[in-house]
Amino acid sequence: MRLYLHYVKMGIKSQMVYKLSFFLLCIGQFFVPFFVFIGMYLLFDRFENLQGWSFTEVALLYGITHMAFALAEAFVRGFDSFPNLVKSGDFDRLLLRPVSTPLQVLGWKFEFTRIGRLLQGVLIFTWALSKIGLHWTLLKVICISGMLIGGIFIFSGLFIIFATVAFWTIEGLEIANIFTDGGRELSQYPLSIYAKSVRRFFTFVVPFAVVNVVPLSYLLEKPGYQSDLYAFMPYIGVFFIVPALFFWQFGVKHYKSTGS
Amino acid sequence: MKKLRSSYQAAIFKLRLAQGLTYRTAAAAGVATQFFWGMILIMMFTAFYGSQTSVDGFTKSQLTTYIWLQQAFLVFIALWIRDLELFELIRTGNIAYELCRPINLYSFWYTKLLSSRFASAALRCLPILVFAYFFPKPYGLELPASPTALLLFIVALVLGVMINVAISMFIYISVFITLSPIGSLLIFSVVGEFFSGMVIPIPLMPDTLQKVLMCLPFRYTGDLPFRIYSGNVGITDAVIGICIQIFWLLFLPLLGNFLLNKALKHLVVQGG
Q1: How far is Cα B133 from Cα B157, in angstroms, rounded to an integer?
Q2: CA distance B239 to A103
Q3: Residues of B in contact with A39 (CB under 8 A)
Q4: Could B47 and A31 be called an inter-chain contact, meaning their C-beta atoms sit closer than 8 Å?
Q5: Residue B46 distance to chain A (closest CA, Å)
Q6: Helix (H, G, I), strand (E, B), or coil: what is residue B59?
Q7: DSSP string, A162-214
């Protein structure tokens, strides 16, 4: 843990070398998704509601999803750009050190410009919370924190899985974006609005549903979602990281260096 | 002069095509990614339609066609596609060599950017169009509304990419002043993409905003040709739209050329 904090400190220092470009990239990270949000607002303006969901309800989900994605991307960035590490043969060096490989890859790179996206998510989240008028209970606080934590773990798991694929492909896979960026785009709306096959996929393969439509329905006290057990459901998302890490270990075992 | 330009254009086109063909798997992966991305967007937008089939004259099938064409011709309409070489030329001072050439810098770069967009589109658009066409009924790409619509679509699409390159030239010109492309790329890509209907289709925007966008060049790059294709914009309106396209195509390069010459006058190339 001390080592990890040290990695974080180094990461911040190295990104602050180019202050102006860091600042501009942060602004970009704020505005690119913010325009997507404006688009969402305009769609609600035209259609009034989305299969029974109101704008503020979806905005709440949007805020949480983007917060989770931004945090995962900032701290798990090392895995996101991992294919370069394999390609250059630099992964060999990590294997020689007496520290676990996931920790080293985590500490290899951070992307603090994602603070722009995070801020955007926080703003929209707080705005939506203030408008929506929830009946607060302790369980709902647990539930909302779970949506964020579970979301971070699911996105991180996806980053790790696609980093592992690079052990075989050497190249980074552009198609991975469909699951990470695409997962984010889809799960900023309640998953119940999509076709059955898509819903099934995001329930049983990548479990976005446990941090998405189910806890949201519980928070809003939608009929059929009164049981307090639903408050703990988002924490299931945390376990998505377990198979991801197993897959990683499996990949490390099959690693053949590209040489240099 | 003219001959030089067209032979240069052909050379660039061939070179980029060859480059694209070398990285076939990358191109295939790109096509697959765009294809899935189109599906995601279509799922999102059609969810808003619910059981409605048409909103203010913009039908569900026109919407899916709009999205598929956007994906297929992404390299024609995206403002964030840029030539890093040109930025480097300006930043490092190697621009001095470009200025020695006996040709107008604006038209030289314009041609270069245009031909590379055509080359990447040539590789990517067909597979997406074919796959999208054979996709199950409510989500598939429809055939053009009529043969005339198809013809006008092609004209508007080509004029559209020309307008788009003219807009993107302002990004390069701004680098003469700022020396870093990050800022202007950001503004152009975020605002431009929104105004050209790439975040949400323009027919789904509020009426007042639509009226404002009619007065800006951005929607004439992709939005107009895609709506001509699906018949959402009728034949007469299409012809009027193409006239407006021609206006922008005369005005933007004129302005760009003027600004570029102004920037070049104040240009100081350092060192060697």
Answers
A1: 19
A2: 61
A3: 194, 199-200
A4: no
A5: 9
A6: strand
A7: HHHHHHHH-SPPTTHHHHHHHHHHHHTS-GGGS-HHHHHIIIIIS-GGGGTHH
CB B83 within 8 A of CB B116: yes
Å between B35 CA and nearest CA of chain A: 10
How far from chain centre, in Å, is Cα A218?
Answer: 21
Q: Structure tokens of A50? A: 């989305």
Nearest to B192 by CA among B174, B218, B162, B160: B218
| Upper half-sphere CA count for residue B248 (Cβ side, 13 Å) | 24
**Interface contact B29-A175, CB threshold 8 A:** yes
Contact A58, A189 (CB under 8 A): yes
Mean pLDDT score of chain B, rounded to an integer?
86
Distances (CA, A) of A118 to A8, A33, A67: 17, 10, 5
What is the percentage of chain B residues whose pLDDT exceeds 70?
A: 95
On whether the CB atoms of residues B219 and B196 are closer than 8 A, the answer is yes
* B135: contact with A, CB 8 A cutoff: no
Chain A residues inside the 8 Å CB shell of B29: 173-175
Q: Residue ranges per domain, chain A? A: 2-253
Confidence (pLDDT) at B3? 62
Domain boundaries, given as residue ranges, for chain B: 2-265
Residue A229 DSSP code: G
Q: Which pLDDT does position B199 carry in this prediction?
A: 92
CA-based angle B239:B240:B246, to the nearest 5? 90
Hey, are the CB atoms on A195 and B43 less than 8 Å from each other?
yes
In this model, does residue A9 exceed pLDDT 90?
Answer: no
Is residue A170 within 8 angstroms of chain B, CB to CB? Answer: no
Closest CA to B220 of B76, B124, B82, B83: B76
- What is the mean predicted confidence (pLDDT) over B112-134? 86
